[in-house]
Design a protein that fits this description.
globular
Amino acid sequence: MYLIAALFPYLPVLTVLVIIAGATRAAVTIKINTVNQQESDPKFLGRVMSISFFSIDLWVPLIVILVGYMVAPFGSTILYFFGGLMLVGIWTIHWLIKNKQKTN
C-alpha cells in the first residue's frame, strides 16, 4: 500500500488505498478476535480480549503521528521503507503460520 502511495501520490489513488487499508484492517481484526475467542479459556476471555484491543489500538495514533512527521522531511521515499517493512512482516507471519501447520 505504501509503495503504491509513494509511486502514485494522487488523491483518487490515495482514497482507494485508504479504503483498501480500512477493509484489510477490519478483516485482520475479525480474524484476531475469532482466534482469541476460539483459543482462549472462557474464564479468561475478557482479559484476553481487552489486552488484544489495547495492543492493537494503542499504536495507531502514535504511528500516524510518527509517519506524518517523517513524511515531511523525507518525502514519499519513507513510504518505500514502510512498504518494505510491511512486506517483511507479511512474509514473517506467512512463514510462522506455515511452520505451525507443519508441526501440528
